From TrEMBL:
The active site is at 418 (nucleophile). It catalyses: uridine(54) in tRNA + S-adenosyl-L-methionine = 5-methyluridine(54) in tRNA + S-adenosyl-L-homocysteine + H(+). One of its GO terms (molecular function) is tRNA (uracil(54)-C5)-methyltransferase activity, S-adenosyl methionine-dependent. It comes from Pleurodeles waltl (Iberian ribbed newt). Residues 311-377 form the Methyltransferase domain. Keywords: Methyltransferase, S-adenosyl-L-methionine, Transferase. S-adenosyl-L-methionine binds at residues 290, 340, 390. This is tRNA (uracil(54)-C(5))-methyltransferase. GO terms for biological process: methylation; RNA processing. The lineage of its organism: Eukaryota, Metazoa, Chordata, Craniata, Vertebrata.
Amino acid sequence: MGVTGRDKTVPKVAVCFARARVVVWVRVLLGWFPVLPLKSTMYSPVWMRSLCQHLGHSLARKRFVSGLASDEELRRNATVCPPEPKSRKKKSRNVSALEGENSSWEERLSHAVTPLWTVGYEDQLKVKFDGQKKILQTLVSRLKEVSGEHITSPSTREDSCCPLQPVVPSLYEEYIKLSPLDACLLFHQGGHWREITVRTNRTGDTMAIVTFHPQDLSQEELCLQKESLKEFFTRGPGAVCNLTSLYFQESTMTRCTHEQSPYQLLHGEPHIFEELLGLKIRISPDAFFQVNTAGAEVLYKTIAELSHVSRNTVFLDVCCGTGTIGLSMANQVSEVLGIELIENAVEDAKWNASFNGISNCKFHSGKAEVVLPELLLTLQGNHPFTAVVNPSRAGLHYRVTRAIRNCRRIRTLVYVSCKPQGEAMRNLLELCCPTNDRKKLTGEPFTLKMAVPVDMFPHTNHCELVLLFER
Ligand SMILES: C[S@@+](CC[C@H](N)C(=O)[O-])C[C@H]1O[C@@H](n2cnc3c(N)ncnc32)[C@H](O)[C@@H]1O
């Protein structure tokens, strides 16, 4: 990395963009949205659009593989995502090599979508400046042709028809450069500006969440920073981003919940909304939402097909986020019971049920390992339960798997995991192993019946794995 936050210069060539790409994809795995890292790439609507197009084409590619894509999708896809060559070539940082047929399809895709991805930001600005200069020179010669006149503007000497200003750099990067405060890349090195998370929806609303390390700033100094950020994005150069919401979170840890450190709304709407399977879904800044909505619809339909529910089924949605899975199943079952740790997400889930006119859903806030065992004890009747669990990468707490295993009424279990090779593996073993008195796993073991990987993360090694268990 060419730079720390201290000298306000820009990271060097490939490293900065390599980092940018990693951050973008990692955040895509964690949540719904790309994160643009400080000082290494730019927040610009165009860039965001190209990323969204990239994700869209990725989805089309997946549909192509699964035979679902329309001819139109295939045609569009083919222009961005050429077929993979039989043998993958060695990666190269040489731009001209990336353009060539010998490069891998990932490199050619990156080159097609973000052609300057191997170039540092200062050099990108030079490339852009030179490009614009050439355009102006062409304009000058065309103007000469059409007018038959000699052009006498002050910059004729440079073959340009008007003074050419330096490229105005991208906005968040510019903001950080203007700020008297440093970026915070590593906690122990100090600095303040951490990351910006950008959430967009199908209708083009944009929520930006800026994470900031307060270090030892006073409340007055913090207020000044918030005011200045708001000014930049509402009345300054950042106003072109047309943010629907601007949030600010002070965070001294890698991640903070709203309860640990509130998400402070600096400007605009408190929520972003998304249309999903015919439902309008409200999403708070700290609530989870799947990485791309069309992909989420495919995932939820897969879960619904595997769940084998009936009108009698009580449907448990464990780790339910904004309630999307349960809400999308509500009209097929007698009752949906959701459990979620993040309080704002539970509020969203309740709002989503009410707004969409769904009355057979109840959402409980808290740790599933605390709420689920108690909830199962209170449920009356003999109707079968179907449980869907969709935990984060840390998997389920052993008390959750134990409660599910020991509840005889749960006959069908769908386990959705974005990292089945991690902690989830332990959960799966606990669900299927022979009875074990020492671990208090006394219920009948589940049997794995079906596994369906759903590619929510094209161009990465990751899948959502949907596992159907029965007993
Ligand atoms: C992968 S997300 C799935 C959310 C939802 N099913 C969806 O598709 O949008 C995992 C969810 O589990 C929640 N979670 C994490 N740990 C939890 C716990 N101990 N108890 C309840 N929920 C938890 C997270 O807040 C997050 O919303």
